Amino acid sequence: MFGDMMNMMGKLKETQKKVEETKKRLDTVLVDEQSNDGKVKVTLTANRTIKSIEIDDTLLEDKEQLEDYLIITLNKAIEKATNVNETELAAVAKEGMPNIPGMDMFK
Description:
Residues 5-32 form a coiled coil. The chain has helices spanning 2-26, 63-96; strands at 30-34, 40-45, 50-55.
């Protein structure tokens, strides 16, 4: 039993290390999004850090319209990045779960 417990602890530590490595890698995964008409384009990492924003000059004339464009486009980009982030981290966590009786709900 003690050996099994040590094995599980080792596997959990290994999984934690893989999760941290995945988080670092997600800083390099870029997600692009743009408004329907292409007037606003944003790029962010899968960890939801904004890397760039491009705005068409025609939007600079109307502050309210620009704000609307930014909100919509950034929210779509954040949703995409969140989906990538959660999928990647869930895959690593699932892969590293030790086989604990009664805990197969994570599989």
